[in-house]
């Protein structure tokens, strides 16, 4: 089972981690650049969670890249459990953050009082969409590693 | 492992299911009674998800009650997988719904334009809190059953 695609230390896992990091960075950029996001709690929450997801995914991407390109380290069940738990918690938190952002931006867009211009509203929504994608990739990593935990 | 508290068919599982159903009903009542919830997408989402959680939890509560009070049926791994998946999907959806509701009600409460009276805003928040509790209980059920799946 060592070469199961998506397990820790394979190239599929590296791709998943890079995808998570890229979507999280995109979400952060859409949210932060030129927009006063700190006036809404939900947007601050999204920025906080994406700020946690990026270092986590990049660290694991580096571990995967080392494992793919240099040499395969021994896989320890304890380490795998920590990674599964972390992925899971982060995917839960990013799901909460992205759904909050999506609903708030939807509310801002449809309400009669114009809180945001059409351009910034679209950027809020794009940010939420990127956060959803990052969340789903994180969940995929967690599920694949959880699946492999009994055979580790 | 048959008597592990919280596994399918034990009295702890019955308590968890009843808790989920009660919190979901409370969330639905806080949201629906006397409030025009259908003017906000997030609130409609919450009502939909809670409407899914209630029959699911009540069905499983009945199965647990049958197992506790009458006789213990044989536990099938296939059935357990379906229940774990269902719990997990519902807990994810209810997490998304409750965080959307919480962020929207927070936004409605703090915005300068008064969208809702203080009483209805508090009720939105209470509804979101109940949905969070239901979500966490659902997650607990899912995790306990997942833990026991390899020994089933």
Automatic annotation (TrEMBL), chains A, B:
Q: Which residue spans traverse the membrane?
A: 12-30, 37-58, 78-97, 128-149
Record InterPro entries:
CASP_dom (IPR006702), CASPL-5 (IPR045009)
What UniProt keywords are attached to this protein's entry?
Answer: Cell membrane, Membrane, Transmembrane, Transmembrane helix
Family assignment from sequence similarity:
Belongs to the Casparian strip membrane proteins (CASP) family.
Where is this chain primarily localised? Answer: membrane
Q: What is this protein called?
A: CASP-like protein
The membrane topology of this protein is: Multi-pass membrane protein
């Amino acid at each position: 089972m060592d070469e199961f695609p998506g397990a820790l230390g394979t190239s599929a896992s590296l791709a998943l981690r890079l995808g998570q990091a890229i979507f999280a960075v995109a979400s952060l950029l859409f949210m932060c650049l030129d927009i006063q996001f700190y006036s809404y709690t939900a947007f601050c929450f999204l920025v906080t969670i994406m700020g946690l997801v990026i270092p986590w995914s990049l660290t694991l991407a580096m571990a995967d890249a080392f494992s793919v390109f240099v040499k395969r380290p021994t896989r320890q069940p304890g380490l795998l459990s920590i990674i599964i738990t972390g992925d899971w918690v982060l995917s839960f938190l990013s799901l909460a953050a992205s759904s909050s952002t999506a609903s708030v931006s939807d509310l801002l867009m449809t309400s009669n009082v114009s809180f945001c211009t059409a351009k910034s509203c679209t950027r809020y929504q794009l940010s939420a969409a990127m956060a959803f994608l990052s969340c789903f990739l994180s969940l995929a990593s967690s599920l694949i590693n959880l699946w492999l935990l009994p055979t580790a």
